[in-house]
Structure formats: C-alpha cells, structure tokens
Amino acid sequence: MSLSRDERAALLGATPLFAGIDADGLARVSDRVVEVEFAPDQVIVRQGEVGTGFFVVARGAVRVVRDGRTLANLEPGAFFGELSVLDGRPRTAQVIASEPTLCLALASWEFEAVVRDQPAVALAVMRGLAGRLRDLTETERH
User: Fold this and answer.
1) Is the pTM of this model over 0.85?
2) Where do the H-state alpha helices sit in the chain?
3) How far apart are CA 64 and CA 44, in angstroms?
C-alpha cells in the first residue's frame, strides 16, 4: 500500500536529516521520493557497485555490512547511500534488510535537486557524514 504525500512528508520530517525544513519543503521532498519495500535479508545496496540512490529507512531495520562484518544496524530515521551519490564512486558497504523494511529512496539526480532546493538537507548530510567520520577515527585511535 502506497503512502500519501502527507504520510511521506511526516516520515521525512521525523528524521534528523530533514529537521528544520518547513512543511512546504517537506512536501516538495516527499514528491521526489519513491517508496521501496524490502523483504528480510534482501540486499538493498551492494558493496563495490556505483550507487544511484540515497535511502531513508521509513519502517523496519537494516544492517550495514562491509567485507562480511556488520558495521551498524539502522532503524527508522536513519539514512544511507549518501557517499556514493555524492562522489559517484562505488559503495563502501552493503546494506541488507533485517526485517520487512520500507525505505524512501531518492535517485541521485533527485537528491541533487533536493540539496539545491533545501540547503538544510545539505547541512544535515554533512553533519551526518562528519559524525560517521568522527566515530570511525575515534574508534581507530582507541
């Protein structure tokens, strides 16, 4: 069953990535996303493949796996796929649905349009990337 524009906007608005975007902006972003459902253990993105999409977990959960090792478990509100969309290089990890999962997906060209239209999204993505980088560097030092 497909979500309404308002339901998609509400899901997006509940994620930290889209915090600070007004209702009109959320509605515009929700018009660009596509809903994609995944079964448990279904691969959403593959490590080593060039990505053409960015995802926000709307319902369910996913695990991030690199070289067979689980790096993270993501729940609703989390996002993934931004690195490959931003730099056009192969994905650094595989993402697999842990349970029945619904993601809101943005194709790379739609992601770029959202970032141009909603600068707050660009800032949130940068903050998310910075946090992930910090976590990696702090973990490796200890």
Assistant:
1) no
2) 5-13, 23-32, 82-87, 108-117, 119-141
3) 10
